[in-house]
Design brief:
Blueprint lengths: L3 H6 L17 E4 L2 H11 L9 H6 L12 H14 L5 H5 L6 E10 L8 E14 L4 E12 L3 E13 L2
Antiparallel strand pairs: 1-3, 2-5, 3-4, 4-5
Length: 166
Amino acid sequence: MMSDADVAAKPVGLFDRSTKGLALPTVSVEVERGRIRFFAKALGESDPIHSDIAAAHAAGYPDLPAPPSFFMAIEAMADEERARLGQPSLVALLKCDFRRLLHGDESYAYHGLVFAGDALQLDTRIIDFYEKKGGLMEFVTIESSVSHAERGTLITATRTLLHRLG
């Protein structure tokens, strides 16, 4: 049987759970062609619509379309903008410990394409915290949406981060 001292010594988690329900300030970013080209190349994407403006126009696009997984680049741009504005990043607010941090589930819904030149808004909210394996793992669920002023919501993302505590 565990004593009160044993229970008190057990890790109670590293995430800042007081952030539950917190909506981060909306961040605006502009998608640059160079970012799309770099991201597509890093993915090994060979379709020229992601790197050649003439190929994108020939395919009927107004500019280079971003590959579907470009959400992560948008999130990185938003973190850069938060830093420029003196705002903390999501991982700083959550108090993520990168020595123990893992990515859990990720799901994305694509409602429209992202193009080079788009001015986008990223909204992020911390949804919930929970534990598994008797408290040896703690989880946080995060929801984000990427929207365009004229085309509406383009991407919605639900992600889970976790800390290994044991």
